[in-house]
């Protein structure tokens, strides 16, 4: 029997493309003709769009589950021997499927906004309700246009339902062995949800700009979307790094590889956006900065995708690359970003709003912090693209790697940390030097302690160690001080409920603590790691830190997808040789389906240290090249990321708002009459 | 007189200073008693250098991470060059001469890489300057 599912999926994808076009058109025409009926049709089309995309993805999943190797995407990324969980995860394991997943996630997020908008309109007077109806219509129209662009790209250059006819392969090429890990199930969906969140922020920013008025209410709508996007991006980056540490290569946790940078750059800008949004909510100023950052974050996430999927850069995390796709993504990028920047350039001047600020205030520090984050993002971008530009200009070839990025990133982090340390202690608007004085003396002590620690360690790159120690200590000290000081009551114009203000402070403390914990982990692993590279065979031991690692035996391992040789290495206490604390089992795996050989590290995770062993080439009959490494506080890197995500969740958790009458004040009074006219 | 010196925190500073000096001095003495510091061994130096070089065969991996045969060979060569008394910079130059500029993960500072090295600093200065101007403009 012939499996028709791929055709059905293909048709569903085409239908969703048409629905996206309809949804956008009905929304836009409805807004311009002041026609609520058309707008409601647009919303219905958007819901239909979501369901068709969901069905398309389900049909792709079905093709994977039933091993339909007539579908090229399935044949290239699955195998009948693959476990069911990985067959499903393989859907987003490569380019076409992950794009489909991405588009579906945009549609899902848009549909949720669509369903919830009725709830948000409750309690508004009729003029405000019309304004908001138009705002949501514009937002959904822009999302539909983005989906339309992505869908056309999918259909014309990377159709996941393309068939291999008539020569149907009997067996699929396997999913890349490195991807056969729990990391594949968690990491890409999180990252895509982060990107999708940025897409929604982009659409919301454009909806605000096109409306011609920046309403405080609309920024309140924007807030949970920004925070959710940020939480997902944080998680996506952290899980990716954790995955690479556990599965890939030789124990590094961040390689500054172009693919990593592609997701790290949007994270940096999203972090700036989170802070700029705080600034805008509290002071009602800098709304344009916030909107611009929304546009920037989305543009950079798209640029990152271009980088990853076009294959113009060499990466360890190789993505199936194809230059024609690169060209198409570049066209989409130019189209979306160009249009957005044009709208910004036209609409922004009218929305400028003068608010008075003191130079020494929380506002200044938040703004400067956001700027440093954006500068960091562009520095990483520069380093990532430089080899490419260099080659295009015919200057030859060069590599930009970890040494360069660390040289740039560590000092920028240091500056950001200084701002982070001072900002919580200084009040909004008020200009008093008192908190600086309080902080000055501990910081002198911190600098001296850090200098002594650095001097005592005597390693290469002492400056980085010094900066790392100073930032971590300074941040912890300032956090402790801001726990002790009472949170300053905010001055009007916007009275915030005390519980909300306390929650915001808690989120800040947890988030910044997370940054401190990550800095401590990263500094510690970078400078206090002890490692050895040696040949080892049964019976041989090697002392390392407080442990002795003894190579006990070599064992063969066989699973359904790979054969492996596994070293059994015992961890013993350095003082008592006979006390076995645990075992490490690094493997060299050979995959059945494609013969690829992969090294799988053996790691003993702990709160204070990780012990890491990986197995290299066979050097003699019984001996292997073994790398052992003692990584103090390694887990803190990801612990800090979890704290950051928790902080985002604390901030994003909805607060029940019984009365919203007080919030309906327009940020920009001059333009609001026109706004109410627009429906 | 500078208000700083009238601060009640002055005494705290002295305490912290003397404490940290004691701490630092003590640890310094503790390490000094173990005999003259040997500096990192050849193997550690070789590992550090191999982390700065790109494997000519692998897609984007350092010599240290790469498991390609050429990476093993080059790691061995770095080690033997160190044993022969070559310094880090000489070894890096040697590798660049043999395999081209691409092998070095830290690009050289030269006119063509000026934008790369100074770009972030210029961006930072311009960014912070703009930010401050934005705030100062609003008295």
UniProtKB/TrEMBL annotation, chain B:
Superkingdom assignment: Bacteria
Spans through the membrane: 114-135
One of the Pfam families matching this protein, by short name: CcmH
Keywords from the named record: Cytochrome c-type biogenesis, Heme, Iron, Membrane, Metal-binding, Signal, Transmembrane, Transmembrane helix
Coiled coil: none
Domain CcmH/CycL/Ccl2/NrfF N-terminal: start-end pairs: 29-138
Function: Possible subunit of a heme lyase.
Family: Belongs to the CcmH/CycL/Ccl2/NrfF family.
Record's protein name: Cytochrome c-type biogenesis protein
Organism of provenance: Shewanella decolorationis S12
Lineage, uppermost ranks: Bacteria, Pseudomonadati, Pseudomonadota, Gammaproteobacteria, Alteromonadales
């Amino acid at each position: 029997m012939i499996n028709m599912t791929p055709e059905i999926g293909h048709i569903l994808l085409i239908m969703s493309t048409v629905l996206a076009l309809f949804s956008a058109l009905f929304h836009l025409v409805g807004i311009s003709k002041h026609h609520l009926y058309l707008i409601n049709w647009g919303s219905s089309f958007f819901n239909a769009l979501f369901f068709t995309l969901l069905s398309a993805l389900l049909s792709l999943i079905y093709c994977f589950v039933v091993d339909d190797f007539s579908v090229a995407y399935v044949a290239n990324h699955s195998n009948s021997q693959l476990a069911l969980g990985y067959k499903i995860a393989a859907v987003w394991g490569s380019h076409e499927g992950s794009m489909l997943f991405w588009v579906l996630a945009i549609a899902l997020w848009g549909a949720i906004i669509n369903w919830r908008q009725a709830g948000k309109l409750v309690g508004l007077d009729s003029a405000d309700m019309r304004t908001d109806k138009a705002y949501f219509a514009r937002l959904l129209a822009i999302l539909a246009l983005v989906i339309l662009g992505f869908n056309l790209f999918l259909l014309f250059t990377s159709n996941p339902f393309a068939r291999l006819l008539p020569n149907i392969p009997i067996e699929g090429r396997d999913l890349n062995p490195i991807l056969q890990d729990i990391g594949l199930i968690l990491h890409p969906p999180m990252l895509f949800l982060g990107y999708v969140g940025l897409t929604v922020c982009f659409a919301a920013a454009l909806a605000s700009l096109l409306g011609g008025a920046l309403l405080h209410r609309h920024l309140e709508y924007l807030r949970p979307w920004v925070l959710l996007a940020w939480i997902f991006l944080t998680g996506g980056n952290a899980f990716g790094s954790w995955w690479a540490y556990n599965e890939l290569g030789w124990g590094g946790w961040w390689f500054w590889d172009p693919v990593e940078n592609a997701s790290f750059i949007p994270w940096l800008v999203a972090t700036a956006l989170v802070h700029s949004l705080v600034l805008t909510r509290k002071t009602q100023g800098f709304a344009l900065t916030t909107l611009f950052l929304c546009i920037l974050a989305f543009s950079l996430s798209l640029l990152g995708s271009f980088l990853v999927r076009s294959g113009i850069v060499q990466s360890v995390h190789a993505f199936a690359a194809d230059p024609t796709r690169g060209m198409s993504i570049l066209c989409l990028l130019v189209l979306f970003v160009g249009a957005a920047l044009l709208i910004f350039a036209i609409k922004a001047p009218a929305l400028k709003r003068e608010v008075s600020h003191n130079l020494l205030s929380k506002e200044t520090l938040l703004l400067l912090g956001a700027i440093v984050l954006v500068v960091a993002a562009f520095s990483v971008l520069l380093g990532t693209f430089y080899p490419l530009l260099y080659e295009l200009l015919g200057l030859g070839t060069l590599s930009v790697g970890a040494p360069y990025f660390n040289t740039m990133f560590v000092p920028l982090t240091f500056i950001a940390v200084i701002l982070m340390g001072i900002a919580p202690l200084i009040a909004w608007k008020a200009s008093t030097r008192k908190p600086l004085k309080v902080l000055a003396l501990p910081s002198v002590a911190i600098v001296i302690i850090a200098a002594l620690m650095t001097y005592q360690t005597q390693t290469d790159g002492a400056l980085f160690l010094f900066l790392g120690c100073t930032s971590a200590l300074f941040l912890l000290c300032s956090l402790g001080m801001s726990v002790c000081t009472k949170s300053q009551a905010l001055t009007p114009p916007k009275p915030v409920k005390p519980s909300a203000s306390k929650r915001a402070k808690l989120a800040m403390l947890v988030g910044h603590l997370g940054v401190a914990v990550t800095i401590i982990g990263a500094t510690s692993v970078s400078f206090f790691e002890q490692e050895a590279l040696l040949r080892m065979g049964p019976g041989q031991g090697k002392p390392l830190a407080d442990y002795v690692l003894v190579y006990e035996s070599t064992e063969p391992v066989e699973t359904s997808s790979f054969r492996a040789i596994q070293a059994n290495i015992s961890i013993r206490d350095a003082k008592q040789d006979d006390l076995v604390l645990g075992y490490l089992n690094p493997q060299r795996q050979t995959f059945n389906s494609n013969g690829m050989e992969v090294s799988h590290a053996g790691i003993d995770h702990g709160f204070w240290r990780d012990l890491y062993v990986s197995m290299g080439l066979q050097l003699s009959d019984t001996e292997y090249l073994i790398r052992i490494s003692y990584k103090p506080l390694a887990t803190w890197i990801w612990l800090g990321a979890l704290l950051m995500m928790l902080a985002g969740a604390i901030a994003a958790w909805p607060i029940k708002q019984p009365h919203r009458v007080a919030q309906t004040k327009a940020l920009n009074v001059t333009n609001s009459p026109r706004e109410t006219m627009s429906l | 007189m500078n208000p700083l010196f009238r601060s009640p925190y002055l005494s705290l500073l002295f305490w912290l200073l003397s404490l940290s000096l004691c701490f630092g001095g003590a640890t310094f003495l503790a390490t000094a008693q173990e005999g003259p510091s040997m500096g990192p061994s050849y193997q550690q130096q070789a590992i550090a250098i191999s982390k700065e070089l790109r494997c000519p065969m692998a897609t984007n991996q350092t010599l240290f991470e790469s498991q390609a045969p050429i990476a093993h060979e080059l790691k061995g060569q770095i080690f033997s060059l160190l044993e022969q008394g070559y310094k880090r910079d000489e070894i890096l130059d040697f590798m660049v001469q043999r395999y081209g500029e691409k092998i070095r993960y830290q690009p050289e500072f030269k006119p063509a890489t000026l934008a790369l090295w100074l770009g972030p600093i210029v961006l930072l200065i311009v960014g912070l300057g703009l930010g401050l101007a934005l705030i100062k403009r609003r008295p």
